[in-house]
inorganic diphosphatase
Amino acid sequence: MIAVFGHRNPDTDAIASALVYAHFLTRQGTEAQAYRLGELNFETSYVLRELGLEAPPLLPELPAGAEVALVDHNESAQSAGNLSELTVTRVVDHHKLGDLSTQTPAYLRFEPVGCTATILLKLFREAALSVEREDARLMLSAILSDTLHFRSPTTTADDRAAVDVLASLAGIEDVEAYALAMFAAKSDLGDTPASQLLKMDYKVFPFGEPAQQWGLGVIETTNPGYVFGRQAELLQAMTEAREAEGLSGVLLSVVDILNETNRTLVPGPAEQQVVQDAFGAEVTAQVADLGGRISRKKQIVPALETYFASRT
Amino acid sequence: MIAVFGHRNPDTDAIASALVYAHFLTRQGTEAQAYRLGELNFETSYVLRELGLEAPPLLPELPAGAEVALVDHNESAQSAGNLSELTVTRVVDHHKLGDLSTQTPAYLRFEPVGCTATILLKLFREAALSVEREDARLMLSAILSDTLHFRSPTTTADDRAAVDVLASLAGIEDVEAYALAMFAAKSDLGDTPASQLLKMDYKVFPFGEPAQQWGLGVIETTNPGYVFGRQAELLQAMTEAREAEGLSGVLLSVVDILNETNRTLVPGPAEQQVVQDAFGAEVTAQVADLGGRISRKKQIVPALETYFASRT
């Protein structure tokens, strides 16, 4: 039995791709079970609820040597706590390759596309395996989520082609309406505590040499007014996270999905300096206008890497 | 232009897969050029000569940031000297994942099969690209070489299936006769200096913690009598290599392809102790009988890893 899971602070791709890949492996004769490494966000809950599906269970502490498959991530900092003791035999991912190594030859499938599910659809086709309606909808949801329905600069022609195929297999005629419903669900944040809002889509990255650790959160929303209404709480949660986790800085980008803009919360003077220097951005009342930089992976992280590399 | 190359001390898979993958990429619209990281062995020279092909040129020192594709390897110790300065955008490999990382998302295609060329054939099929006769013969030769025409325990069902397809595409009717001609060419070592014989198929591996570096050479031959006729010279070359490269030990496995046996040269007491303890092998007159362990990757390296891990 292979345990299949996506990254911590799971998003729709991390959950959907774990479910679909576990299903794919099982149908191919390799028993597999999907897990999650954290709580679902509101978008993913919406996707599963609409499909009448339960969330995959939380990953238990696996015994050393247990066989695992990673989807939508490969770096140990984003994975199971005892990853180095586990046996990784399969990875399907669309991120850069980090600190992963394997004890024996494994199946690794990385492509520079917008979403893991885009690669999964290729696996089905290469194996000449039919795609069930439920899996099609999960993969479709993951791609719409990761690419913000093609608004993100991470979108590739492969993602667009996959959505065409999957929408038809999933029986979804108005793809943009479905995407907007997903985004609205994601934006309905209710009374979620600020500390949890910060961590919904949050990753820690090392920058420079010797490495500084930076926490980078993103809230993609169709309702940025709601988030900025809670600005004071969020800034405090960021300061607390910076101290509790021993980070050099924390940023929270509020991405307006419909207008494709990024206004980023800046909790202190260290973050302000970096944001000004790395992006040439104006900072007013602890908010930096990062313009159309809506992709952390493609626009925020590379700019910070370049900035910190130039200072070492 | 992407530079495509296999590992140092290239074997037939490292050369053939570089040529075929460069051809594949170019036909797919990504200009690519194959290179090699060292001298061809006699088997590979035979394969290219029979096809009327030139060897790919030696890899020049590439400028920092140059785009490269790795085939049949991924560890920096087996790659271009300045790999860390180069931009790896593609890897096709069948080895375990080592210390590779990438700056941006890349195409990585690893499968636990017997030969890189087996994976390349899948790429052609997935792209619905016809396989030209020359490429078919290169891939066929690589698989026969890496699997010793299915004698090696690294052989998988995928390798067998690929050989069936490729033999037909290459117009080779008697596959075993062609394999034996390749192995005979490989075994015709003439007056090659002993230091070169040692390095023909040679890799350095770290074992244990803190890591000891061990050099492991293999000579696959249909004529082991020739090799043992040069035993004294080879043992001396091994001792010299151990000292020159600051290694903890050097072993040279002489694999009798037709009888599927491995007799390994043991240059000193440190190596003798390890061979006795790790394999439970008899050592007589500086030769250890390792029985049917003919695969370095599948049988020699894992046993040494287990042995050194148990001592730390």
The interface with chain B takes residues 89, 94-113, 122, 126, 297, 302 of chain A (CB under 8 Å). The first strand of chain A starts at residue 2 and ends at 5. Chain A has a mean pLDDT of 96. Residues 194-309 of chain A form a domain with the Diaminopimelate Epimerase; Chain A, domain 1 fold (CATH 3.10.310.20).
